[in-house]
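pls design
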C-alpha cells in the first residue's frame, strides 16, 4: 500500500492536483481538509489531521491513549521550565515551552525535544497560558495557488509514499 500525499483529477483539459493537508476551522473547533494547491496560502496548513488537532483544538482529548501517559513526563510551568536556546543551529524539531515571564506558551526549534511540550495545546492546558492558541490557528482557510507550468506526475520509484 502506498500512501499518496496528492489528489489529482483530470477534467479532459487539465490535470489539477491538491496536496492532502488540513486547516483548523476556529468556528467548529476541528480540522478540515484544505486541498492545498502548492504555492502561497498561509500558516494554517498542517500535514496531518493529527498535527492540526494537537496544535489548535481548544479542548484536549483525554480519551487519546498518549494524552494520559504524557502528563507524567511534561515539564513544569515555572521559571525553571524556560528553555536554553539551541546554540548549535541544527535544531529541526518544533516544541513548546511555558515562558513564566510572559505567562505564554511559545514555540522553540530544538535538536532534541526532551524537556519541552510536544504540542501547543498541551502547554496551554497544563500551564493555563495567557495565549490559548497559536496565531496560525486563527488564520482563515487559504488553499493557495497552483504554480505555473506545474505537473502532477511523480516518479513513484523515487517517491514511494
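designed seq:
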Amino acid at each position: 500500500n502506498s500512501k499518496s500525499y496528492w489528489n489529482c483529477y483530470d477534467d479532459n483539459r487539465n490535470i489539477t492536483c491538491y496536496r492532502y493537508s488540513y486547516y483548523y476551522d476556529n468556528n467548529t473547533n476541528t480540522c478540515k481538509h484544505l486541498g492545498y494547491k502548492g504555492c502561497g496560502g498561509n500558516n494554517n496548513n498542517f500535514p496531518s489531521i493529527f498535527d492540526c488537532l494537537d496544535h489548535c483544538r481548544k479542548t484536549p482529548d483525554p480519551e487519546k491513549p498518549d494524552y494520559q501517559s504524557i502528563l507524567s513526563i511534561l515539564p513544569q510551568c515555572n521559571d525553571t521550565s524556560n528553555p536554553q536556546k539551541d546554540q548549535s543551529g541544527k535544531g529541526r524539531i518544533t516544541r513548546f515551552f511555558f515562558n513564566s515571564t510572559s505567562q505564554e506558551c511559545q514555540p522553540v526549534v530544538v535538536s532534541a525535544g526532551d524537556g519541552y511540550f510536544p504540542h501547543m495545546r498541551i502547554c496551554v492546558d497544563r500551564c493555563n497560558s495567557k495565549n490559548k492558541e497559536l496565531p496560525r490557528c486563527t488564520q482563515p482557510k487559504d488553499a493557495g495557488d497552483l504554480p505555473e507550468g506545474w505537473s502532477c506526475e511523480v516518479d513513484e520509484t523515487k517517491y514511494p509514499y
